[in-house]
């Protein structure tokens, strides 16, 4: 016995329409073709499925069993077909994100909130546990997008620019460094430096400023939350380096001072790393557009010149 989806569709259509003629129209078949299909199915299962003497046609007990099967199976098939069409059209998929930039949570959440309204069928997730293994996880297809400040040559991976930012030193307003306007690496050799809990190679203050100059701060303390770090800085318990866009919302805090790293300041760029084959997906294009736009909106709110 071999029951096909077309058989289930035919049984349901004849039951719903009450006869062969109207069911054939719904199924886009001739009445003769539908009649032959039903007869062949009845011969295969060995029992009649319809009481043909009745008007409208009624299902036999065996036919009712097939109708129950059709009502269970066909909606599942239709849902699967819809999902597959959505995947093909770029409406359905998954967007699992890992962040090498610890401070990027505050910037990313508004992006994803806007994204979900446009692509509600895309499964969103932030894989925080993969922060230290983000790019290898992208290669293993455990995540779909990585926010990174350190592009690498990786097979099948493209790095798309998102926005530029300036790593900025924040101190207490009455700190001796506050009056300088900018700091040199040796200025931090006497300081307690508060950092996010990340590998030094991923922290701009080390990779771009202190390590090339061979300078080590007096002490390093790891703190998870930005607001806690800034409370410690305001209390004179240390200094910190954060992106300018993180510090924008604290610019009016009279307890804090903000300084450039070096006379000209540092400029860094954030990238979205993703698999080359995913770049053309409509929802991937949209999240990249929103990410860039959020950075521009944030800069304008803070009165800075937005740079991409």
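-> sequence recovered:
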């Amino acid at each position: 016995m071999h029951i096909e989806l077309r058989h289930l569709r035919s049984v349901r259509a004849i039951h719903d329409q009450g006869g062969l003629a109207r069911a054939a129209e719904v199924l886009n078949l001739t009445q003769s073709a539908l009649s032959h299909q039903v007869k062949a199915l009845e011969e295969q299962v060995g029992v009649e499925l319809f009481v043909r003497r009745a008007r409208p046609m009624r299902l036999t007990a065996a036919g009712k069993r097939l109708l129950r099967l059709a009502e269970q199976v066909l909606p599942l098939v239709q849902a699967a077909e819809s999902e597959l069409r959505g995947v093909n059209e770029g409406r359905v998929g998954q967007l699992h994100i890992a962040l090498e930039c610890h401070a990027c949570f505050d910037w990313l959440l508004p992006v994803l909130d806007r994204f979900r309204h446009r692509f509600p069928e895309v499964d969103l997730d932030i894989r925080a546990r993969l922060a230290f293994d983000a790019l290898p996880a992208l290669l293993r297809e455990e995540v779909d997008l990585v926010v990174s400040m350190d592009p690498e040559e990786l097979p099948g991976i493209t790095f798309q620019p998102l926005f530029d930012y300036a790593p900025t030193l924040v101190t207490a307003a009455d700190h001796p460094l506050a009056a300088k306007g900018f700091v040199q690496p040796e200025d931090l050799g006497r300081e307690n430096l508060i950092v996010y809990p990340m590998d030094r190679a991923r922290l701009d203050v080390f990779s771009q400023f202190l390590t090339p100059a061979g300078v080590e701060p007096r002490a390093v303390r790891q703190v998870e939350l930005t607001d806690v770090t800034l409370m410690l800085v305001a209390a004179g318990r240390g200094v910190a380096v954060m992106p300018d866009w993180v510090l924008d919302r604290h610019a009016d805090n009279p307890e804090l001072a903000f300084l450039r790293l070096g006379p000209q300041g540092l400029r860094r760029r954030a990238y979205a790393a993703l698999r080359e084959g995913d770049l053309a997906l409509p929802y991937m294009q949209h999240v990249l557009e929103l990410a860039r736009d959020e950075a521009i909106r944030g800069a304008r709110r803070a009165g800075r010149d937005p740079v991409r």
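The domain at 93-164+268-301 is CATH 3.40.190.10 (D-Maltodextrin-Binding Protein; domain 2).
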